[in-house]
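Re: beginner question about structure tokens

> Can someone show what the tokenized structure looks like for a real chain? I only ever see the sequence side.

Sure, here's an example I had lying around. Input first:
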Amino acid sequence: MKISLQKKELSDGIAKTLPAVSQKSNIPALEGILLKTKGDTLELTAYDLEIGIETSVFCTVAKHGAIILPGRIFSDIVRKMPEDMIVIEVHDSLKTTISCRSAVYDIIGLSALDFPEMPHVTGEETISLPQCVLKSMISETIFAVSTNENKPIQTGSLFDIKGDALYVVAVDGFRLAMRKEIITNENDVKDFSFVIPAGTEKEVMRLLSDADTPVNMVVSKKHIIFTINETVIISRLLEGNFLKYDGVIPKDSAYKLKVKSRNLQDSIERVSLVADERLKTPIHIKVEEGMFKLSCDSAQNRSYDECEIEGDCGVLEIGFNFRFLLDALRGISDAEMYMQFSTPVSPCLFSPIEGDNFLYMVLPVRL
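And the corresponding structure tokens:
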């Protein structure tokens, strides 16, 4: 194989695939990136048996072929190359020469035949939606994904299709985050659901743009394929029964208060400056006279602030982990929202003034 291409093109391709390169594996090929020519493009593929990423870049091909190069050192070499044309030449001994101007490296690759075959996905369902929409749905829920490996199914997000609506839901036992968007159901897709690992969501979100160009998802029983422009991501799905989220969200709340989202976020950020995170110091919210009166007491410090609200619930005192509140508020782009309470020990809900495109639920802590 002998090819030449611009450094930027190659760097971008490596950056997209590198997260799927295994850090340490008993299978050496998993620690590498497969390079394979096809037409006038170079295909780069990485696969760690959990997630696989494949992308392609334009190149000039003098001789077709394929090689596996060690991912980390290959990335480092290209990153340090001058901003010019890079030439990659594979010799019969699998020795690979990478050169650019006066810089020349010789590294030993592996046969392309050693690269494991990625799962073959025959899609049972296909979903398409704008990249900007999927990006926002993931970014505004992924913070609530559980890190508790004792409940593997909760270490990912539920994608739940109901009619022409897509729900993305994450839970961790202390909070719930849900986003809803209307999707185009041209293929009359039946209701179904699947759970995507959080690690896959992060890689997908990294590759998504803020444009309304489409991203396609092909879903089988055990795997999902994302096609994002010229890049393909394939990932396993999590198996198990996800929490029936409809059943844990309170249908009615005793009190419904309107609050400006940014004002409340600013108040919580100010008050939480004295919180001791090692001791998980809660913030205390006292609701009275059209005001949230927020305070936090740590071993040596105390803070206080106020935030105006609309609505009345008498006098109510409730405590929260401030991180949980801030995570939810940072995912809300609406200027105003509703906060719904019932008792000091029942869940608090964040919901939009109009519509139902998001819902966050946070459990309080006992004061």
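Each token stands for a local structural state, so reading them left to right follows the chain. The chain has a mean pLDDT of 93.
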